Amino acid sequence: MQLKELSGRTGVSAASIKYYLREGLLPAGETIHATRAQYSARHVERLELIQALRRIVGLNIEQIRGLLKIADDGAPRLALLAAVQRVVLHLDTPAAGGGDVRAPATDAVVRLRNWPDYPSDARNALNAHLELMKSLNIPVSGELLDNYSKAMDDVAELDIAATTAPDSDDQLILTAAVGMHMHSQLLLKLLALAQASHAIRRYEQGP
Amino acid sequence: MQLKELSGRTGVSAASIKYYLREGLLPAGETIHATRAQYSARHVERLELIQALRRIVGLNIEQIRGLLKIADDGAPRLALLAAVQRVVLHLDTPAAGGGDVRAPATDAVVRLRNWPDYPSDARNALNAHLELMKSLNIPVSGELLDNYSKAMDDVAELDIAATTAPDSDDQLILTAAVGMHMHSQLLLKLLALAQASHAIRRYEQGP
DNA sequence: TGATTAGGATAGAGCTACTATCCAACTCGT
DNA sequence: ACGAGTTGGATAGTAGCTCTATCCTAATCA
Questions:
Q1: Would you call B192 and A85 a contact, using CB atoms and an 8 Å cutoff?
Q2: Between chains, do B182 and A109 touch, taking CB under 8 Å as contact?
Q3: Which residues 168 to 197 of A reach strand D, CB within 7 A?
Q4: Mean pLDDT within B67-73
Q5: A35 CA vs C7 C1’ separation (Å)
Q6: Which nucleotides of C are covered by protein (CB under 7 A)?
């Protein structure tokens, strides 16, 4: 398969494919001659992954490059999953800060859900976020956190189960990133519906 | 208060304030003379709102302008809240499409939570999103949806309670937008922690 | 043989959110 | 009264990002 066919099959313009090649997102095709290269099904898969991460998840080129590099370096899947989380959760931007901090609320969640008591990027991010909400005067009750974490516990089980099935790392990235994104959007839309429902009650029927 | 003091008090550069004035985000100050204008506490409040919507919630200028226009046109709070939801949930981009569609899963949620059975942007967005997840082969069980919606029901109650207190529309926008955003981010981080926990179990201790 | 394609390089476009500069009119502190 | 400073208004430039287009030579397939 040559460039034009790769383009036609994925719906990505030839110019963009060249751009991705330049940026190192897409590995070079197998060079047959000085001006001819062969692309394989792997290139199609990779290109579709890139498209999904750009258009659905909204990652930028730099973030995608980082993920693909980790995958191509043969990192273990647990590390790859952690990397996906870092970019989807925007843990790469806020300068990290203090490292492993403990927060009572987070500890309580971990104990309640019987999750392993390990430090992780996700845990640090959660602690930092709870601090931030506190400083913004947005209350988060323990009960609410329980409800949230229960729901997330359920969904994570499905998500992780899905990531064991795929045979390629590209598939894992796709499943994890798209899954996290879609679930978070689902939550957001449910929250909006819930808010709208409560608002109708309060503003139209209430005092 | 003149421009420079407004700048110093809010930490926004004078050039940026001029830009916001040009773009119609910030109302012009009270013109004293051809080359002198007075800004008030309302300008400080408005500027802080703009900053929060930009830096925390991540809205763009166009979206912020839209919200502020609705508020300044004296729309009822229910409409204002709906507008905030539209931008925070990105309901303004996907070309809307079919209008009021019904989906069994959404209906079930509404009945279960005893929410009023009204069509709304949020409801349409939820229906569309569930369709999208289905088409992407991401399973969403009824049980999961129940857990999600229960958690969102709880949080919405708090959120809406918070929006009745503020006396200015600017405050309402701030509370609703920042609240929705922070809650969605909280969810996301909990999901990451849950995923990481499940992944550790599965990859390190599992078979 | 001639239209097409590859790779490589480079330049430009289109968007967003500022940021900077310049100007003439005016005001304030001293 | 004078000079430093500020204002609104206009205009232009910057920076980052993601492409998109053009130009070139070499090689290929029909």
A1: yes
A2: no
A3: none
A4: 94
A5: 6
A6: 5-10, 16-21, 24-28
| Span B108-128, pLDDT tens digits | 999 989 999 988 888 988 998
Nearest nucleotide, CA A62 to C1': D17
Q: Name the nucleotide with the smallest C1'–CA separation from A13.
A: D20
pLDDT tens-digit readout, A50-102? 999 999 999 999 999 999 999 999 899 889 988 998 998 887 655 444 567 77
Give the nearest partner residue to B115 out of A113, A184, A197, using CB atoms: A197
Rounded CA-CA distance A121/B168 in Å is 38
With left for phi above 0 and alpha for psi between -120 and 50, is residue B58 left, alpha or beta?
Answer: left
Identify the three-state secondary structure at position B166: coil
Q: Which residues of B touch A140 (CB under 8 A)?
A: 186
Q: Is the CB of B60 under 7 A from strand D?
A: no
Report the pLDDT averaged over residues B18-47: 91
CA-wise closest residue to A188 among B59, B85, B64? B85
On whether the CB atoms of residues A129 and B186 are closer than 8 A, the answer is: yes
Q: Which of B76, B126, B176 sits opposite A193 (nearest CB)?
A: B126
Structure confidence by residue, pLDDT tens digits, A109-142: 999 899 999 888 889 889 989 999 999 888 898 9
What would the mean pLDDT of B173-182 be, rounded to a whole number? 90
Query: Model pTM greater than 0.85?
Result: yes
What percent of chain A clears pLDDT 90, i.e. is strictly above it?
A: 47
Strand partners, B30: B38
Asked whether the beta carbons of residue A122 and residue B189 sit closer than 8 angstroms, the reply is: yes
Helix, strand, coil percent values for chain A (each to nearest 5): 70, 5, 25
Shortest Cα distance, chain B CAs vs residue A48, angstroms: 13
Distance CA A109, CA B191 (A): 12
Q: Is A51 exposed, middle or buried (0-12, 13-18, 19+ CB in 10 A)?
A: middle
The yes-or-no verdict on residue B166 having pLDDT over 90 is no
